[in-house]
Amino acid sequence: MTEEESRIPPLTYYCYQSVYAHIDRLSSLGRLPYKLIKPVLFAVDADTLKHLEQGYDDWQRNEYLDPTDGPEAVSLYASASRSVPVSWRDEYFALTTERQNAVSRASDRVSRFRVAQETDQRKAKLVHDLPPTRRRGNNPLHSIINPAFRKVVADTRKMSIAAPNQQAVHKPYPMPNFRPPSTMPIRTEPTHQSRSKGSPHPRSSQSTLFIPKSRP
């Protein structure tokens, strides 16, 4: 045993201190060995000691005075359910380990519940953000949240519906056939021989040919 461990008082010391603090209210000691309660009997007054002796007569027997000494101790431990007593330190560490395991299991359950809750929230958000399915008779403009954008879409739709009617009422004017800027007219006159032969048509009509203008 090290010096630090020797400074730690035993468990019986704290038990005696608790009994001494409430010794005035002591009414019974139960079936405790005489060797264990001997310091308590020396600390009580005469009236309390008489009351304790009248309440428990086993103290008068010789085999009860000190059963932990001699051959009585062997028979006592042999008749017990456990042949080897369990250390309270082992019990304490076992309970501490069990408590830590319980806390770990509880924290794992809370973590799994939180992850499941966040997953459900994300699913609900995705479902809420999706546009509604277009049904027959359903106006798709109701799915647009911005009122200004909704108004623009409605006006555009009205203009697209009214455009064919406007074209039927106001027909565009026919465009004139303009001469291409890259052509120039050339007039041709009938020859002298065709004039002298006395044809029924002494003078043919003028013809206009469009010859592409050569570029410089």
TrEMBL record:
Biased composition (Pro residues): 173-183
Source species of the chain: Serendipita indica (strain DSM 11827)
Lineage: Eukaryota, Fungi, Dikarya, Basidiomycota, Agaricomycotina
Region (Disordered): 162-216
Gene3D superfamilies per the UniProt record, alphabetical: 6.10.250.3180
Source superkingdom: Eukaryota
Protein name: Uncharacterized protein
